[in-house]
Amino acid sequence: MNATPRWLTAEQKAAWDSFIRMQEKLIGRLARHVQADSGMSAADYIVLAKLTEAGGRMRFMDLAKLVEWEKSRMSHQVGRMAKRGLVAKEECPDDGRGAFIVATPAGHKAIEDAAPVHVEHVRRLFVEALTQDELDTLARISNRVVAHLEMQPD
């Protein structure tokens, strides 16, 4: 396939570059705060947040898909978290190849302690920078891009 690249226009590149810079700065800053405030990595936090939002128990592959991680990355992350007592892996009785990831009592406590501080950082660094109309617009744009991504081949 030797098609000529469809380069971005200056305006498209500026929008893309601004989005990437904002995302990297925001995620980096939030990750540093989570680590400093709770001792958890950003990966620990996202796994525990998604797991507890889903009732504290999810199939391994469903959790991996939810956070957009490869199976190997999720496996390593779950292994590290299990060693620290934050999650446990349970075999799936219906499917010998599948497994459930379960938030332990220590995992529930860790996310319950970390979430209020994290949400204050999100409010201070993100929400307070925008008006409600801008937040609504950003939510619509984000949802449109996610819907578009879901229609594209992986």
Q: What is the compact description of this entry?
A:
The chain is mainly α.
Would you write up a description of this structure?
This protein has 154 residues and is mostly helical. The chain has one domain: Winged helix-like DNA-binding domain superfamily/Winged helix DNA-binding domain (Arc Repressor Mutant, subunit A, Orthogonal Bundle), CATH 1.10.10. It is 66% helix and 12% strand. It has 6 helices and 3 strands. A 3-stranded antiparallel sheet has the order 1-3-2. A hairpin with a 2-residue loop joins β2 and β3. α1 (10-38) crosses α5 and α3 crosses α4 (71-83). The chain is globular and about 50 Å long.
Helix and strand topology:
Blueprint: H1 10-38, H2 42-53, E1 57-59, H3 60-66, H4 71-83, E2 87-92, E3 95-103, H5 105-125, H6 132-151
Antiparallel strand pairs: 1-3, 2-3
Helix pairs in contact: 1-5, 2-5, 3-4
Number of domains: 1
The number of E-state strands comes to 3
Quick one: biggest sheet?
A: 3 strands, antiparallel
Look at the structure and give the CATH class. Answer: Mainly Alpha
Along the chain, the helix and strand elements come as: HHEHHEEHH
The proportion of residues forming helix, as a percent range, comes to 55-70%
How does CATH name the architecture? Orthogonal Bundle
CATH topology: Arc Repressor Mutant, subunit A
The backbone outline, from C-alpha atoms, is globular
Mean pLDDT: 94
Low-confidence spans: none
Radius of gyration, in angstroms, nearest whole number: 19 Å
Strand order of the largest sheet: 1-3-2
Task: Count helical runs.
Answer: 6
Determine the strand fraction and express it as a percent band. Answer: 5-15%
Look at the helices and sheets and give the structural class: mainly alpha
InterPro entries: HTH_MarR-typ, MarR/SlyA-like, WH-like_DNA-bd_sf, WH_DNA-bd_sf
GO molecular function, one term: DNA-binding transcription factor activity
Protein name: MarR family transcriptional regulator
Domain HTH marR-type: 1-147
